[in-house]
Amino acid sequence: MAVGGNSAYADVGVLPPLVDSAVELAASLGFDHSCAPEQGQLLSVLARGWRGGRIGETGTGCGVGLAWMVEASDPTTSFVSIELDEERASAAAELFSDHARVRVEHGDWRELVEHGPFDLLVLDGGGKGKDPSVDSPLDPAAGWLAVGGTVVLDDFTPADSPGAAEHDAARRHWLDHPLLHATEIRLSPTLATIVAVRIR
Ligand SMILES: C[S@@+](CC[C@H](N)C(=O)[O-])C[C@H]1O[C@@H](n2cnc3c(N)ncnc32)[C@H](O)[C@@H]1O
Predict the structure, then answer these.
(1) Residue 2: pLDDT above 50?
(2) Can you spell out the DSSP letters for the chain?
């Protein structure tokens, strides 16, 4: 199980202000599934590479990952994130209300495609196909991801660690995808992320 949520932020020192506020919001709503600090730091690096770009996210949660990206970007970068849970969507929209370039919507992840194609697409609440009973992997070419764009899939168990086999089908789907150059990045002993670039 990946270590994320509020407890993972307890020992992280000084956080960017919006990230701090999002972590506080998550704690106040009793939401303990925010992205891990390691993932947030990776997202901030990736978002920095897309200044002026369009960034999308499925599964806003309380906006922790989104906050890492917004803090790393500049005013020319726009964001749309979508969250199924009404309370979290509304609270996260309020958190980013001073940032006109950030839009948080309440809805199902599939609706996010209306705002694509994205330069950076973060799949954290649908579209990964990790659990076939919940969703199936999205097609990057169906309006989701621009050619040259990057897709990020959080919350895998590192391939060589116990329990990894559970998500091997989704892992292989993305790592072997014919439209993508993909790699798995180990962020901690229990957490890995797949990062892929659309090549055609
Ligand atoms: C792992 S949490 C997201 C964490 C967040 N991205 C962050 O960085 O802190 C997954 C979120 O996806 C949301 N979710 C689940 N199913 C969804 C769906 N069908 N459409 C949109 N969001 C969904 C959940 O309500 C939950 O808030």
Answers:
(1) no
(2) ----TGGGGTT--S--HHHHHHHHHHHHTT---PPPHHHHHHHHHHHHTTTTSEEEEE--TTSHHHHHHHHHS-TT-EEEEEESSHHHHHHHHHHTTT-TTEEEEES-GGGGGGG--EEEEEESSSSS-SSTTT-----TTTTTEEEEEEEEEEEEPPTTSTTGGGGHHHHHHHHT-TTEEEEEEEEETTEEEEEEEE--
